[in-house]
Amino acid sequence: MENRKPVTGVAVITGGAAGIGEAIARRLAADNFVVVIADLDRNGAEEIATEISAHGGEAVGRHVDVSAADSVSALFEWLTDDLGRCDVLVNNAGIATTAPVSELPLERWNSTIAVNLTGALLMTQHALPLMKKGDRGRIVNISSIEEIAAAVSFLCSEDASYITGHTIPVDGGYLAAGVLEI
Predict the structure, then answer these.
(1) Spatial distance between the Cα atoms of 28 and 50, rounded to a whole number of angstroms
(2) For the chain, which residues make up each domain, given as ranges?
(3) Quick check: pTM over 0.90?
(4) What are the backbone angles phi and psi of residue 180, rounded to the nearest 5°?
(5) Does domain 9-181 have CATH number 3.20.20.70?
């Protein structure tokens, strides 16, 4: 039997059923976190959790609509009752709306704000009480399309315990190269 390291903590990743969120979930599971993949896509979240578990990690997929307060409350009620802690929250769920401002329907704007901003607020408000009960707490807000799983892993580790309240652009060098200034 393989000797597994002790569990690092419980990490909740929103939007973890695909893309960056999936990569973060897999990386944190490899770092011995119990991973809660919280996603609107219940089947996708459960599928990724099953794959992580099959490779020796600990993961569970849970349905959540981050833009709905009742859905977020239900997730954290389950989390409190079943796992009893939340050490890491990765607010990764997001939707992208691309349209000229003059043609952007208000309902698309509102849904984007509800998921991308209100969702992060609701998740953070529910995670903080559990984090305060424990000996650690990390909240990572994602607003990028770049591959950043390793950066999130670092920010959730003890090696980053000295980093507090900072915005750290992880953008593949685009900002440093001045691409965003064009």
Answers:
(1) 15
(2) 9-181
(3) no
(4) -75, -10
(5) no
- Residues, the chain, total? 182
Q: Residues near 170 by Cβ (< 8 Å), separated by ≥ 6?
A: 144, 146, 148, 151
Q: From the centroid of its chain, how far is CA 175?
A: 23
The pLDDT profile of the chain, 182 residues, written as one tens digit per residue, is 455 677 889 999 999 999 989 999 999 999 999 999 999 999 999 999 999 999 999 999 999 999 999 999 999 999 999 999 999 999 999 987 777 888 889 999 999 999 999 999 999 999 999 999 988 889 988 876 555 667 777 777 777 777 776 666 665 555 555 444 43
Cα distance between residue 135 and residue 37, in whole Å: 22
- Smallest CA-to-CA distance from 67 within 105, 138, 121 is with 121
- Angle at CA of residue 87, ends 161 and 173, nearest 5°: 55
